[in-house]
Amino acid sequence: MSTPLPSHPPPPRAAVLTGVGSCLPPTAVTNDELAERLDSSDAWIRSRTGIRRRYVASPGTATSDLAVGAGAKALKSSGTPDVDAVLLATTTPDRPCPATAPAVAARLGLTGAAAYDVSAVCTGFLYALASGAGLIAAGAADRVLVIGAETFSTLLDPDDRSTAVIFGDGAGAVVLRAGDAAEPGALGPFDLGSDGGREELITVAAGGSRQRLSGVPPATRDQYFAMEGKEVFRHAVRRMSASARSVLGRAGWRAEDVDHLVGHQANLRITHHVADAVGIPRRRCFSNIAEVGNTAAASIPLALDQAHADGVLTPGGRVLLTAFGGGLTWGSTVLTWPGPDRA
C-alpha cells in the first residue's frame, strides 16, 4: 500500500496591478485666475503649495461621471471589460444615499458586480486598494476595479484662500487581478492606520448626523471644508514617513531600493519632507500636483496614470505609495511596476 504524498496548500493569491486610467474635467483654473479674487498671486500660491493650476468640474458634472471616465480607461488598459468588484474611494459621493459605486459599475456595464464606496478622505485610494487586494486574497474576487474620484470643489469656500487654491477635481483608477506575489505588478504589504482623536484637523462640520441632530442650524462656514494647515503638515509628514518605513521593512526593501515615491499629492513640500525622512532622494519623487492640485482620493491613481503615460514608471521599477488624510488616516504599500502588456 503506497503512502500518500503530503499535500501542500496552494500559494496565497496576490493582487496584481494590470491596468491604469484617469479622467480630468475639461476646465483648468490657473493661479492667476484665483489670485484676482483671493488677493493673492501665482508666486505666493506656487511657493507654498507647488500648484500652478487645478481642474474644476462644470455644473451638471458629478463624481460618478469622472469615476466612469477613469474606470473605463483602466478597464481598456487591462485588456478586459469584466471585473468582480468595483470599489470607489471618494469624499464627495453623488448623494449621501445610496453609495455611488453601484451606479458607476452599472454605467460601466458591470451590473451584478459587488460595488461599494470607501471613505478615508485623501487616504481613501490606499484603503480601497487594500480592500481590493483583500477580496482577491480571500477568493471573493478574481478581478477588482479600484477608483479614486473627487469633485472636491463642491466642498470649498471659494473665498477661503487657505483651501480654494489647493484642491482640484479628477479621478484615477487601477484594475487588479489575482496572481502570484512574485509577479511584477503584485501589491506588497500594506500599512494602514488612523487617529480619530484628531478628527478636528480636517473636517466638513455640517451635513452629517451629528450636526443634523444637534437642533442647531449650521453656520455657513460649517458647510465648507476646513483644515488646520500647520498641524496637518506636521502630522502628514510624521505619519506618512513612519508608514512608508513600515512597509519597506516588511517588504524587505531599503530606501535606496525605491525607484519612485508616489505620494498623495497634498503639497510638494510634504512630499519632499517625507522623502527626506525616509531616505529617498527627492529626484525620485513623482509629482503632478503642479498641474492638477490636490485631488484627495484621486491623487495617487491620477499620478500613477500620468507617470505611466510619461514613461516615468518603467517595467521592474520599485514603487512606494503613501498617503495621509482626514480621519486622521494614513497608509502605504509597495509594488514592482509591471510590463507594458500588463499596465
UniProtKB/TrEMBL annotation:
It catalyses: malonyl-[ACP] + acetyl-CoA + H(+) = 3-oxobutanoyl-[ACP] + CO2 + CoA. This is Beta-ketoacyl-[acyl-carrier-protein] synthase III. GO terms for molecular function: 3-oxoacyl-[acyl-carrier-protein] synthase activity; beta-ketoacyl-acyl-carrier-protein synthase III activity. One of its GO terms (cellular component) is cytoplasm. GO terms for biological process: fatty acid biosynthetic process; secondary metabolite biosynthetic process. HAMAP family: FabH. The gene is fabH3. The keyword Transcription regulation does not apply.
